[in-house]
């Protein structure tokens, strides 16, 4: 099981199902036909990506649950596209998240469903994913967390499959099912107006089933077991420090280890500058280490700038 991405730390489970955004179908009369609308959407995508980078860097959970919205709330989004003419295909996506916060206990459940068909009418996507996140605060500093994730890719259907809707896979470790459940304690070492530092660590269990395993199960082939359940250990650190109203830094570290998957370590250091009310800049440097890869370390430099006038 060399291909393993159990969890890139305790917060990676929050690959969030975002609130849907509603926009015009075109920015001006004739924009769709002339291609102006497509370019405008690309500009919006870039702006959203930069804005997301700034919002993540601010670490909205750095001060704990005191300012969290209380009660039950959530969102749901659905999209469908059906095409006829030169191409005939369709895509469907459903995503939503429900959150419930009550005093020291906060939890959320997320779900995404995606289906698609190619021009021949065969399925080219059939994926379901669910996540769970919970935190219980015993006091201002000490808390417990729980993380859950489960993914199903129904088109990973094994090798030599006659089903046209399936993606025949040559790799034994292509995953049809992939689940993770972890929990443990966390502690806020520093928690004041200018500096916060919290750490958490725990134990997790991961279950995987490969496409080849599913293929063998469907044909009642004995002696095949490519499913796997193993224990992993996770640890995370989140540091935030504000020098003044113009500059703050963050350092996020996540570590995961397991027998089959080896070690996974990520660290992101970021510096955020607010030059003025119109200009803001973020510089980040991310290092990702995986012991089971041929080239074990990847490094990424990121620059984001926002200027308004």
UniProtKB/TrEMBL annotation:
Record's keyword terms, sorted: Signal
Task: Tell me if Signal is a UniProt keyword of this record.
Answer: yes
Q: Which residues form the signal peptide?
A: 1-23
Output the Pfam families linked to this UniProt entry.
DUF481
Protein name per UniProt: DUF481 domain-containing protein
Annotated organism of origin: Paracoccus alkanivorans
